[in-house]
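I would love for you to help me understand the pair of lines that follows before we discuss the fold together.
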Amino acid sequence: MAFYDNISLEKGLYNQSAKNFTASLEALDPSTNYKGTELEGLDAYERQLKRFDIKVKGFNSDNVEKFFQSSQSATLFPEFVKRCVMQGMQGANVLSDIVASNTKINTLDYRPLASLTSEAAQSFPKVLEGGLIPTTEIKLQENLITLHKRGRMLVSSYEAIKFERLDLFAVTLKQIGAYIAKSQLDDAIGVILNGDGNSNPAEVINVAAAGKITYADLVNLWGKFGPYEMNRLIVAPDVMQKLLAIPELQDPMAGLNFQGTGKLSTPLGATLYRANGLPAGKIIALDKNCALEMVTAADVQIENDKLIDRQLERSAITSIVGFAKIFADAAKVMTV
């Protein structure tokens, strides 16, 4: 009998304050013990799926009811739901490519840091012998940032889904995750445009000719970024169409890059993202390395007890996230 067969699964594994469910399993059944075996590459949760012969994807995936063949295997179901939701969030998530720092907190109150960004603060003059070394002041912002709770309520009876294939049920859960990620991106866009409550909205730059964007406008936007690097552009759908019509973007290599990676790049080296939540006629340009901080008070939260007890009728899936500006002038907005 394999060691992982001896682990007792119970609800308490979800309630360990410093660990999530998988981390709790890993503490009982470390993956390092399986190096060089056929189980290498599986985490502790995946080994438990193997223990109960639960196939969660592929042509031969099991039905939802397979999780409930015993009280112990039922304990694995909330983690399955959480993983599917997180996969959906990661698959649709632009945030991971535009956020400079991800801070996890255990409270709903968070006050971000502020650093002086004046031209004097950015220069490093020579210091003469006995002279004073210039200072950079770092302090807490005056106001707390706002965190938003996003989520969905599962409204279904166990009887309605017990015979559904797990891979099909996972599609619905992943879509919930995608919707949460989209809402969080909208929150991030709002903070970039309007600030995080500390009087730090993005500088607004207008195009030369209203309603039209040219390569010269992009160059002007790029020129406003010293000493930062303009490496990400988030654009409204209507602006995306205008950008793709700029002759400098219509070169064969740009097309090959889009076909190979699904990502568009401008001649200035910034990666393009379309955001339906961005107001029409807007472009957000930012330095992804120092513009935005993502603050997570609660990762994906699942009502574990309800799912284990097959009470799916009103089971919530939520995430609490907020955003803060790091260097306010590392993000700018162009109005077309």
